[in-house]
Amino acid sequence: MSASDPNQPIRPWAERAGCCPERKPHLRVHDLSVSYHGTPAIRNVTMDLSRGCITAIIGPSGCGKSTFLNCLNRMTDLVPGCRVKGSVRLDGTDIGADGTNLIALRRRVGMIFQKPNPFPLSIRENLTFPLKHHGVRNRHDREAQAEAVLRQVGLWGEVKDRLDQPALRLSGGQQQRLCLARALVLNPEVILLDEPCSALDPIASGMVEDLIASLRTSYTVVIVTHNLPQARRLADDVAMFWLVDGAGTLIEYGTAGKLFETPEKEITADYLRGARG
C-alpha cells in the first residue's frame, strides 16, 4: 500500500516520536527576515530544526514557505534583489557568514525542487558528474556510489540496463527519484524538498513519499507541502506559516501530533479544518 493511499492508517504520533526523541537542533534559525527589492517575504522567523526528523512547512500559497526553505542552503543568493537578515546555523556555524563555501554548504544541504530537474545527460552521468565535480576521481568508486543510491531510491532494477540512456526519457516519478538520488550521492546531512510530489501522479507520489519516510533518522528532512494529509503521514514536526502584515510569519511550531490534534492558535485550527486559506 502506497503512502498516498487515503485508506492507509496514519502511524501513531507516540510511536513516530521515538524516531527523534532528543530533538537535538541541527539547523537553528534566528530572527530570519527576507525581502525582494525591498518588499518583505518573511519576517522574524525563529525555530530549531531537529536532527534526524522530518519537519513539514505548511500554510497557504504566498506565505513564504519556499523562501524560508531557500534560505537553508542560501539558494536566495541566486535571486536578484534578495536581502536576508538574521541567521541560519548548521551545527553551530553561521551559513550566512562571509567566506562560506557555498559548494560545500550545498553538498551538506541538498535540495529537491517541485518539478523534477535531471541534468540533460545520461542516467549514469546524472550521478557520476556531481561526484567527479566534488573530487571523486576513481571511476569505479563513482560507479559504485551511483549504484548504491539508485538502489536506495528504488530505481536500480528499473534502470540498470539503460544507464547510458538520457535521463529525460524517464517518467516524472522516476526523474524525481533520480533527482533525490543525485542529492543523496553527495552524502548530505540535510535534505530540503519543495513540494516534491505536486507534479506527480498518485502512484509516483506514493513512491516518493515512501522514499522520503525512509530518510527519517539518517537525514534531517525539511519538506514544504500544501498537502495536509501528506504532512500528517510524513512529519515529526510541523511549522505553520501565514501572511501577516504583508510578510510570511511563523504562526505555530511543534510536534506533528500536538499541532494537528491540539493546535494552540485559532488560525492554525481554522486552516487545518479548511475554514481558512
Q: What can you see in these coordinates?
A:
Helices cover 34% and strands 26% of the residues. By secondary structure, it is of the alpha/beta class. The longest helix has 14 residues, at 139-152. The protein has a six-stranded mixed β-sheet, sandwiched between helices. The chain has a four-stranded antiparallel β-sheet with strand order 2-1-4-5, covered by helices on one side. It contains eleven helices and ten strands. The chain has helices spanning 13-16, 65-71, 102-108, 123-133, 139-152, 156-159, 172-184, 202-214, 228-234, 256-261, 266-272; strands spanning 25-36, 39-50, 54-58, 82-90, 93-94, 109-112, 190-194, 220-224, 237-244, 247-255. Mean pLDDT is 91; it is low at 1-12.
Give the gist of this structure.
The protein has 277 residues and is α/β, with parallel strands linked by helices.
Draw up the topology in text.
Layout lengths: L12 H4 L8 E12 L2 E12 L3 E5 L6 H7 L10 E9 L2 E2 L7 H7 E4 L10 H11 L5 H14 L3 H4 L12 H13 L5 E5 L7 H13 L5 E5 L3 H7 L2 E8 L2 E9 H6 L4 H7 L5
Estimate what percentage of residues fall within beta strands.
25-35%
> How helix-rich are the residues, as a percent range?
25-40%
What is the arithmetic mean of pLDDT? 91
- Class from secondary-structure proportions: alpha/beta
Say what oligomer this is.
Answer: single chain
* Principal-axis shape: globular
Radius of gyration: 19 Å
Kindly report how far apart the N and C termini lie. Answer: 30 Å
Low-confidence stretches: 1-12
Major sheet size, sense and barrel closure:
6 strands, mixed
Annotation field: number of helices: 11
Q: Give the SSE order as H and E letters.
A: HEEEHEEHEHHHHEHEHEEHH
Instruction: Count all strands and give the number.
Output: 10
Strands side by side in the biggest sheet: 6-7-8-3-9-10
